Each structure stands twice: as C-alpha cells, then as structure tokens.
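Hi R.,

As promised on Friday, here is the backbone we talked about, encoded as structure tokens. Could you run it through your design pipeline when you get a chance and send me back a sequence?
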C-alpha cells in the first residue's frame, strides 16, 4: 500500500483513538470482536486479539481482514498467558494472522503477555519476511534486546512517562531504528511521549521525529 506524505509528521503506530491532526499519522487499531468495522479511517490495523481467540466467526473475520482498503498492519494479534484460549489455539490463530501479513506484505502488530519465548520460537522458524512489532512494551532491557536480536521491533507508550520504568531503560538500550511510539488506549498525548523519548535518549525532538517518521515509511511500506 502506497500513500503520499509530504511532510515529516508525528506517528502513533497503535491507538484506539480516532482523532487526528495535520501533523500526526495515527494507525487506529480496530479489534475484531465479531462485528465488522465501519470507520472511514486513513490508516487501520485490524485483527483478532488473543483475548478474543474463542469468539465465533473467526473464519469470516480473517477473510474480511484482507478486504479493508485502509489496512496498513495486521493485528493486534498474538499470545497471552493470562487470558484467551489455550496456548495451542492462540498459536494457531497467530499463525493465521502472520500468513495474512505475508500475503498482503504488511507488518504485524503484536500483543504478547508472558509468552515471549513462544513468540521468539515462532519468529525463528525463518519463514516470515514482514516486520513484527510488539506494541506497548513494558519489559526489561534484556528482553528488549533479545526481541530485536531476533528481528522483532518494539513500540513504547505511556509507560515511558513513569519515572524509572523498565520501559524507559529498555528504550535507552535500543537503537532508534528498532522502535516506535504509541498511545494505545491511554489518554496520553503522543507528543508528550515523543518529548519523553527524546529526553530519555538525549536526542533532539526534531531529529527523533524525523527518525520515527522514516521508520514508519520503511516499515509500513508507504511512500513519502
């Protein structure tokens, strides 16, 4: 999918808020819960959350995913130790999303709780070429480095605003090409998260803004 972007903008790669502005690109995450999305949005990610892995109509939903014109990412989908179907079913459903991402050549937005070993094992199978992004990452820096070493990108959100958070330490351990920023369901302003990330990494805000915008252009296969 190709889109024209004439200016360097803030990018929120995972949000459940639909409001946008001329200086912001926001990828709105629509959670497939058995109903079809009707929102007319420019950038959409769509998928079956692992919490909904026991829902009815999974086949219909997966087929519908491929028809969304504004789709720029698959998910959020993934694995959750605490909620949803049994692990085997979650893995099967996750693989279905991955296959769609490969077919459509779109990245995967991943929800992962307590199943990072399984996630890395699936990635190591080596059959997948599209980017994977773990959204809302809050883990320690060792895990962050392990994920990026295995070709999995990260996205950070409001946890960066918490003084001394593990997310903050993880962010500082990574290179700017390895991560994104997001708001998810929080009421935090993406610009405030950008300012915090710039402070944590010692990067001028305008430089960080340009870097993350370029990350967006390359990862989400859009054209400036």
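Update: got your reply. Pasting your designed sequence below so it's all in one thread:
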């Amino acid at each position: 999918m190709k889109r024209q972007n004439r200016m360097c903008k803030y990018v929120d790669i995972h949000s459940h808020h639909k409001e946008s502005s001329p200086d912001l690109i926001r990828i709105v995450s629509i959670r497939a819960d058995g109903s079809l999305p009707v929102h007319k949005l420019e950038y959409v990610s769509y998928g079956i959350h692992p919490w909904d892995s026991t829902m009815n109509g999974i086949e219909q939903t997966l087929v519908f995913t491929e028809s969304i014109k504004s789709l720029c990412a698959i998910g959020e989908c993934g694995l959750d130790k605490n909620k949803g179907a049994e692990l085997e079913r979650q893995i099967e459903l996750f693989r279905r999303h991955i296959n769609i991402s490969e077919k459509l050549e779109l990245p995967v937005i991943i929800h992962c709780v307590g199943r990072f070993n399984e996630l890395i094992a699936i990635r190591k199978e080596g059959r997948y070429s599209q980017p994977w992004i773990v959204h809302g990452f809050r883990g320690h820096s060792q895990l962050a480095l392990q994920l990026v070493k295995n070709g999995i990108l990260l996205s950070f959100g409001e946890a960066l605003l918490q003084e001394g958070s593990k997310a903050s330490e993880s962010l500082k351990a990574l290179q700017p090409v390895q991560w994104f920023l997001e708001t998810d369901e929080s009421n935090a302003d993406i610009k405030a998260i950008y300012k915090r990330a710039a402070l944590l990494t010692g990067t001028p805000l305008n430089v960080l803004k340009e870097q993350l915008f370029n990350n967006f252009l390359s990862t989400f296969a859009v054209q400036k």
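One thing I noticed while checking it: Residues 34 and 57 are 6 Å apart (CA to CA).

Thanks again,
M.
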